[in-house]
Amino acid sequence: MIELEFHGPGNGVAVITLNNPKAMNALDSAAVGDLSDAYTRAADEGVRALLLRGEGRGFCAGRNIVGIDPATDDATAYLDGEVTPLLKQMAAFPAPTFAAVQGACLGVGLGLALATDIVYVADDAKIGSPFANLGATLDSGGHWLFVERLGPHRAMDLIVTGDLMSGAEAVSAGLFSRSVPAGDLDSFTRAAAERAATGATKAFLASRELVRAIRDERIGLWESVHAENIAQGELCSSADYAEGFAAFREKRRPTFHGR
């Protein structure tokens, strides 16, 4: 079950909850579709931040394989036709996105985190690739994430052994943003999303595009500097840019409206 609520200043934060704790929030095809619909509805509401969370002991344990017959399963159709479009949709959401990751974050769940801008994890979260026991391989961008952040040797170590990293270890290794005590994770992430919802949304999205270009297109220093210069010039015409300068001159806190 996928739940969508609106909270924060002016209902400007969408909170999407994976709520199937008995299955550790594992996703079947129907749940993937429902999650995509929730992101679409949140975007249509014009929210200025989004929080993805999982109910219960785990964030998302990956694909829900209950009832799947390996003899007839088409994993490529599920991953390439359903999951990948969802991850691309999440990565392009028109506001900053946050994820609160506790417990298991595996497979498709790891992909959900990878497609999110800012990921806070519980110190004792479990992150890795236990799929060797299924005769399957890591998916949903997991190979890219592990090789990019950990290097090929550590990536293969995690894949072959099936060992899981704690949330604290994953953050120390550069996989995600911050780790916090499990009991503080939800409130900590909600507070961060609410702060972002009062910020200069266009400026945040400009930075996301710059980060994406550095990551995916491997643009160099001076190309990145040029892109920053162009982005800054484009922001000059935004209402939030004008408000930020006015607040600076008047020695007050700015009031941004995401425009």
From TrEMBL:
<dbReference type="InterPro" id="IPR014748">
    <property type="entry name" value="Enoyl-CoA_hydra_C"/>
</dbReference>
<protein>
    <submittedName>
        <fullName>Enoyl-CoA hydratase-related protein</fullName>
    </submittedName>
</protein>
<dbReference type="InterPro" id="IPR001753">
    <property type="entry name" value="Enoyl-CoA_hydra/iso"/>
</dbReference>
<dbReference type="Pfam" id="PF00378">
    <property type="entry name" value="ECH_1"/>
</dbReference>
<dbReference type="GO" id="GO:0003824">
    <property type="term" value="F:catalytic activity"/>
</dbReference>
<comment type="similarity">
    <text>Belongs to the enoyl-CoA hydratase/isomerase family.</text>
</comment>
<dbReference type="InterPro" id="IPR029045">
    <property type="entry name" value="ClpP/crotonase-like_dom_sf"/>
</dbReference>
